[in-house]
Amino acid sequence: MSLGEVVLMGIIHPVSRPFYPVLSNDTTGVKSVPRGEIVMLTIDEERFQESFETYSAIGSTNNNGLHRLALTDEDKHVRDQFVADLESLGVDIRIDQIGNIFARRDGQNQDIAPILIGSHLDSQPYGGRYDGQLGVLTALETLRTLEDEGIETKRPIEIVNWTNEEGSRFQHAMLGSAVFIEKTDLSEALDLTDVEGNRLGDELTRIGYAGTDAVEPFDIHAYLELHIEQGPILEEHGNAIGVVDGVFGITWLRATIHGETDHAGPTPMHTRRDAMATAADAISEINRLPNRLSADAVSTVGELRVEPDSINVIPDVVEFTVDLRSYDDDVVAEAIERTEAEIVAACNRHGTTYELEEIWKTRHTEFSPRVRDAIADTAESLDVTYESIVSGAGHDATNVNQAFPAGMFFVPSVDGKTHNEAEYTAWGDCVTGANVYANAILALAGR
Ligand code: HGY
Ligand code: MN
Ligand code: MN
């Protein structure tokens, strides 16, 4: 029975007053819900806010952001907090070999595929408090609310914190979920190193999250992730949530330009083989590329490394990364070709050479209509305004959707700001999102 039917049959509480579960007076402790009665869950706002503040204090920066790179001590501390919260819920916790933390809340029928809920707790170097964290805490609050109401859903519910969603310290992004669906090889992932040469597998061991559970995709009935929009649309349109149709395709490249060191003084300009001047030319052209490709195409050069990095030496090696995205995979393919053409042209001008490596590629994804409908039906039954939206940011749901029916919805980001300590979502929007999420999970899990 889809939520739509249940909404028609059930009692719908006007959103103006707090809605509360309509439960039978069954005294067995686990209250069962009479057939045909719709149960509208209301999360515990105080507890939700308290958790948000507790988690935000772990790895917090002076500007109210988060510095919680994957597998650092800060990530360990927030993982420990998450595990402690799961333990007090009495759910069955598992940690897999890439450090994904799962926990399972039993359903009436243990043999049918669970609903998977969650997001990520790692952050960008100077990121915001909502990216990823809000999704994990919304999922945690959903389990807590189901517990409060003594609701035993038909399906089991699994909650997850994915390892290294951001891909900032260890490239590539959405790593834990990619290993989970066997898109990225576990041993390759464990051998990834950060700029200081720390190996991912060793860091998992160091922080105590090198799980022993095999990384293998268990059957999932539906995955639902709540995330901040990380863009300006919902705020501009005044809608409370964005039901995500799909996510951009993304490709990450690493370019290395080779020139020749020489003295900054006596070396005439026309004899130089300047790797920095080459990179500068190429980067400014790469930045102009998207306008010539499509309305949604974007390109970003986020990392730059220079050798020998000395003020009076012409650089001989310059390395930079390129992040290319569009909802149209052909546009991304075109952007890759044109990026390489710009690098070749710049090398020809400066007498330098280059290497270009593809670090990561993920095609665009379109989410499950069934999950999208469950979100939209729930928003309608709660009288919450919503619109369809596409995500330029990558998410773990992209990977899960390649193996199981997945979906996402967004809550607004003030000024669209994100990957920035100023990232902010009004608390009322967080609570609205959490109520929609809890009820959509209840609808998907059935009772
Ligand atoms: O790269 C992304 O879009 C995400 O923040 N990992
Ligand atoms: Mn995120
Ligand atoms: Mn992010």
Notes on the structure:
The N terminus is likely disordered. Strand 3, helix 4 and strand 4 form a beta-alpha-beta unit. By secondary structure, the chain is an alpha/beta fold. The structure holds (2S)-amino(hydroxy)ethanoic acid and manganese (II) ion (2 copies).
List keywords for this structure.
447 residues; alpha/beta; Alpha-Beta Plaits; 5-stranded antiparallel sheet; 14 strands; elongated; disordered N terminus; binds (2S)-amino(hydroxy)ethanoic acid; binds manganese (II) ion
Overview in brief:
The chain has 447 residues and is of the alpha/beta class.
Count of DSSP H/I helices: 13
**From the helix content, strand content and strand pairing, which structural class follows?**
alpha/beta
As for the number of domains, it is: 2
Straight-line distance between termini? 10 Å
CATH homologous superfamily heading of the largest domain:
Zn peptidases
- What's the average pLDDT? 92
What is the β-strand count?
14
How much helical structure, as a percent, in the residues?
25-40%
CATH topology of the largest domain: Aminopeptidase
Q: How much strand?
A: 15-25%
